[in-house]
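ARCHIVE RECORD
Type: protein–small molecule complex
Small molecule: zinc ion
Source of inputs: curated submission
Record status: active
Notes field left blank by submitter.
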Amino acid sequence: MRAVVQNDKSRAFGRARVGLAVLALAAIASGCAQGGSDQVTPAGGQQPLDAPPARALESYASKLRAAHAARGAAAHRWDLKRAPLPAPPAPEEKPRIRTREGFEVKGHEESDLPPVFTRIPTRDKVVFLTIDDGAEKDRAFLRMMSDLDVPYTAFLSGYLVKDDPRYFRKMQARGVVLNNHTLHHPYLPGLSYRAQKREICGMQRYILKRFGKRPTLFRPPYGSYNRATLRAAKACGIEYVPLWNEEVFADRWEYREADRKLRPGDIVLTHFRGPAQWKGTMPDMIRRFLNKVTAEGYAVGRLEDYL
Ligand SMILES: [Zn+2]
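STRUCTURE (tokenized, with ligand):
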């Protein structure tokens, strides 16, 4: 989505910043009471060639120390086992996103239609959190996520949003991108092309009107789609169709892969649900999510940074 045009100077600066972040993280790691510090020990030879003066490094390190302390305090407030790991900087070059093997639909060239995928090809130790539907509007969840500074991406269904769009506007004001999950959450392959297009384009218009931005990401309800779905999505301005590899609930995880392992770049699904729909609250679900990903050394990335 973003044209990558950078001159050598800005690239060198980007590298120096990454190098600084690694050094500064290593500097604070010894003061980290909650573990996970072995994840950021720099390997030999990673120091930037054009390292800035020590004062700049110290001020950068003290900023990171403050951010680290704030994350630790927020983790304590929300009863997490340890503080979430900070996400790496957005990649300088966007990865090439392709339709996952086995997720193709017959009779089209891959480049014709928006790609359907369950993970982002990256070596960064990140996973992405995506939250669907919109039934539960839990204010504590909004506070928790901004307090912890954990990014996520929402896929909204119009019929669940319309009783309280302000809830999602608050989310949007905190940097969450609101995406398309149809107007009425139907099983799309059971509908004609025209009916599918009404569901998808209708939700594009709804989000544009209510929230001021037209989505570029679409997730079909139940992850079910056919060729008409992808053609309709493309006609409605959709560029990507992200599905998921894992799903987290308030009381458990479910996995697409038989080995039940997180991998770098995995997209994780969950839902706006509360005690009426599952065994717990939104914050309970986030605790389950963060405790696992952090314990396994993963940060939560911002999906839009990789697209
Ligand atoms: Zn859904």
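CURATOR ANNOTATION: Confidence is low (pLDDT under 50) at residues 1-45.
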